[in-house]
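> forwarded from #structure-qc
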């Protein structure tokens, strides 16, 4: 009986610890997925922005060439290229900032996951200690009942011997 209760308590605590570890793994996986999605979206945004800037530059150059005006096409190309480089730099900085934020969020999630795991382990230890204490109390109660039963059997045996002795022995 004692081993069965202890085994059930250990199994329940083990299940709780396994569930907590699973939740921690889920949190970590979710943080990684969000981080990857953020990086992908930022990269797509950068690519789209650069493509639009290059299209605008090409359109501006084409319009200037069509009108036939005395425009400094090379100057326009240089300025457009300068604006594109500025946009690339700003986008790269934004991407780096977003990546830093994502890494900070991932680190926070990892710390929280570790805290949850520690809490689960502490709860497991508490449940195990409580189960051991309950088993010890139950064992003490069983021992007490056994002792009482032994005393009652001895008393009943003595009474029976006395009864049979008076009945058959004549004393």
């Amino acid at each position: 009986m004692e081993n069965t209760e202890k085994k059930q308590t250990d199994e329940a605590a083990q299940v709780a610890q396994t569930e907590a570890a699973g939740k921690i793994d889920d949190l970590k996986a979710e943080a990684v997925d969000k981080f990857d999605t953020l990086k992908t979206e930022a990269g797509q945004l950068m690519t789209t922005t650069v493509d639009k800037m290059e299209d605008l530059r090409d359109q501006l150059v084409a319009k200037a060439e069509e009108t036939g005006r005395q425009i400094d096409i090379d100057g326009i190309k240089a300025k457009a290229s300068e604006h594109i480089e500025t946009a690339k730099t700003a986008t790269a900085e934004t991407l780096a900032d977003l990546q830093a934020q994502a890494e900070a969020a991932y680190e926070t999630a990892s710390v929280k996951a570790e805290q949850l795991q520690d809490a689960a382990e502490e709860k497991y230890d508490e449940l195990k200690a409580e189960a051991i204490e309950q088993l010890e109390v139950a064992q003490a109660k069983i021992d007490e009942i056994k002792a009482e039963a032994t005393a009652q059997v001895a008393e009943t045996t003595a009474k029976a011997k006395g009864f049979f002795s008076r009945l058959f022995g004549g004393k």
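QC bot note: Helices lie at 2-67, 73-169. The longest helix spans residues 73-169.
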